[in-house]
Every structure is written in structure tokens, then in C-alpha cells.
Design brief:
The chain has 335 residues and is an alpha/beta fold. It contains eleven helices and nine strands.
Length: 335
């Protein structure tokens, strides 16, 4: 028996007009009746024609677009939640292409009365002609999906991604939605998942609720994402210190001694010479052209470096804010 009176698919987007149209076209091919779901495209400040294209798109389902100034994915998703009318919310990223049974699989994965969060499969399609970075990301996602599908595996907050996730609307509202303090890329999904777990939500994995990820980022874009993830990881740890040791921030000393030494030197240089991360990107692009046998290993090390560039910058900023607050307090006391 279907307990839901409707399903809302919420898609946040920023400057990815072409990807959004592919996603909307895939959602038009669902096996479930088009009257049972709506799609909301939450446009986070895009000026690339996304709003106009969505408004012109002839969808068999109810389709709505909303636009707001750029405030980050957390804010865009919350705006979509507020506009939604369905009992079940499915979050989908703008570079995803759901399979025909996607919406139905999400609906059926929520038994009546359950408080579930359903994480759907998000594989990256194989393309032999794709750049090595796409193959690297594909291999990482394949390993992640294999882990999630393991018999008896219990999903934790770090297993949850909101590129393909469904949760009851009332449960999301109960925990307050996404934390809009997360303006930069990353960790807003983990932070929401942690609060949902604390509220008694059980996360499960569904291989049937599949949406393919059209991955098209190059190394510079991924490096920028990793720097942002470093920043937001510090924010996450600040908000939830009880899990700080389980985050990536707690793994700094777990690398090999050789890499710890090299990374420490690189981070020192990055603080002294602000243009050094750009040099690291140029070096990795040179490696990509040469395609050495251990290119994936170099990707892993380089992205680890960029994560810590962001994390250390956030920690310095936080420390400076504390000192400034203390100085302001001392000034007020003296006066």
C-alpha cells in the first residue's frame, strides 16, 4: 500500500543548464504515473538561461522553477522543500539521469510508518574516451556503491549523499532541513544525515533507485571542490564536536610518514606563497597529459593536499575570528 499522497523531486542547480534539461528529460520517462510526482528545480543564482529553459520545458509531470540569489546548495534545497507539496522528498543533483524505475523504487523503499532515508545508486557510466579524472572518480564511486550494497552493512552519516536521496518531508522539517551556514561545497549532506540519525532515521541503500551521474569535472574543478570540503569539514566539526574524530579531519596523521612530510612542506609553502596551489594544479594537468602508470595514486595525494589547504585556511580563519572577538571584548571591558 502506498502511504504517500505525492512525491516531490527537488533539484538544486547552479550554472548547469544543459545538465538540468537531461535530468528533466529522464524524469519524463518514469514508469510511475506522472500525476504522482512533481519536480522542483531550485535555481541558486544561475544566469545561464536555466530558468527560461525550465519554464519552456514541456513535462508530463508538474514542473516548477524557483530562483534565488546564489547562497549555496543547502539554501537551494531548503527553498525547494518549502515549495514542495509531496509527502516524500527525493533529492537529485542536476547532473543525474534517473533510470525509468527511479521514482517508483524510492517510493517503494519506504514501508508505511517508517522513518527511513533511502540512498539510491549513483554510478558514473563507463566511457572509454573519457578523461582519466572521470575514470578515477568512477572507480571510487564503484567501490563506494559496492560497500553500501554489502550484506549486513549499516549506513552511517558519512555514507549518505544527497545527489540521490529520499526522506519523508515531515521528518526533514522536524530536524530543521539543511543547515544554511554551509555556503561552500560539501559536508551539508553529512551534517543533515547526522541530525536525521539522531532523530531515529534509518538509512538504507537501494540499487533499484538508480540515477547515473554525468560526471564532467576536470582536475582544477575537483581541486576547488576539495578546498571547499576542507573549509566545510571544519564547520561541521565545530557544529558537531562529538563526531570530529571520525571525520576526515581526524585522519591527518594516518598517511604514510613520507607523504606526511611532503604534505606538511607543501602546506607550509602554500601559506607563504599563495599561488603555489595553482602550480600544483598545473603539475597535475601535466601529469594527466603524460598518463603515468600511477596517475590514480597521484590524484589521491593531490586531492588530499587540496583538502588540507582548505581545512587549514578555515582553521586559521576561525582562530583569527576568535582573537578578534577576544580583542573586541577586552576593548569593551576597558571602556
Amino acid at each position: 500500500m502506498n502511504e504517500f499522497f505525492g512525491i516531490s523531486v527537488v533539484i538544486p542547480t547552479y550554472q548547469r543548464c544543459t545538465s538540468v534539461i537531461r535530468t528533466l528529460q529522464a524524469l519524463a520517462r518514469q514508469t510511475i504515473a506522472s500525476t504522482e510526482y512533481e519536480v522542483i528545480v531550485s535555481i541558486d543564482g544561475s544566469v545561464d538561461g536555466t530558468r527560461e529553459l525550465v519554464n519552456r520545458f514541456e513535462a508530463p509531470y508538474r514542473l516548477r522553477a524557483l530562483w534565488q540569489p546564489n547562497q549555496g546548495r543547502a539554501s537551494a534545497r531548503n527553498a525547494g522543500i518549502r515549495l514542495s507539496t509531496g509527502d516524500l522528498i527525493i533529492f537529485l543533483d542536476d547532473d543525474m539521469e534517473p533510470t525509468p524505475g527511479f521514482v517508483l523504487a524510492h517510493r517503494d523503499a519506504h514501508p508505511p510508518g517508517s522513518r527511513r532515508g533511502v540512498v539510491g545508486a549513483a554510478p558514473i557510466p563507463f566511457d572509454a574516451s573519457a578523461p582519466p579524472m572521470v575514470h578515477y572518480r568512477r572507480s571510487g564511486m564503484d567501490a563506494r556503491l559496492q560497500r553500501l550494497a554489502g550484506q549486513g552493512y549499516k549506513l552511517g552519516f558519512r555514507d549518505v549523499y544527497t545527489s540521490n536521496l529520499s526522506v519523508r518531508r515531515d521528518v526533514i522539517l522536524e530536524v530543521g532541513g539543511f543547515d544554511e551556514a554551509f555556503k561552500l561545497y560539501g559536508n551539508e549532506d553529512y551534517e543533515l544525515a547526522l541530525r536525521l540519525l539522531k532523530a531515529g532515521v534509518e538509512f538504507v541503500y537501494s540499487s533499484q533507485a538508480m540515477a547515473y551521474q554525468g560526471y564532467d569535472k576536470d582536475f582544477p574543478a575537483l581541486a576547488r571542490d576539495c578546498v571547499a570540503r576542507g573549509h566545510t569539514a571544519v564547520l561541521f566539526a565545530q557544529k558537531h564536536p562529538e563526531v570530529a574524530s571520525t571525520l576526515r579531519l581526524g585522519t591527518y596523521h594516518q598517511a604514510s610518514p613520507k607523504w606526511r612530510l611532503v604534505r606538511a612542506l607543501l602546506l607550509v609553502v602554500s601559506r607563504i606563497l599563495p599561488w603555489s596551489p595553482a602550480c600544483a594544479i598545473a603539475f597535475m594537468k601535466w601529469l594527466e597529459r603524460r598518463r603515468p602508470p600511477r596517475l590514480y595514486h597521484y590524484y589521491t595525494l593531490a586531492l588530499d593536499y587540496f583538502f588540507w589547504v582548505g581545512a587549514q585556511a578555515a582553521l586559521r580563519q576561525r582562530s583569527g575570528t576568535r582573537r578578534a572577538s577576544s580583542a573586541a571584548l577586552r576593548t569593551r571591558v576597558i571602556r
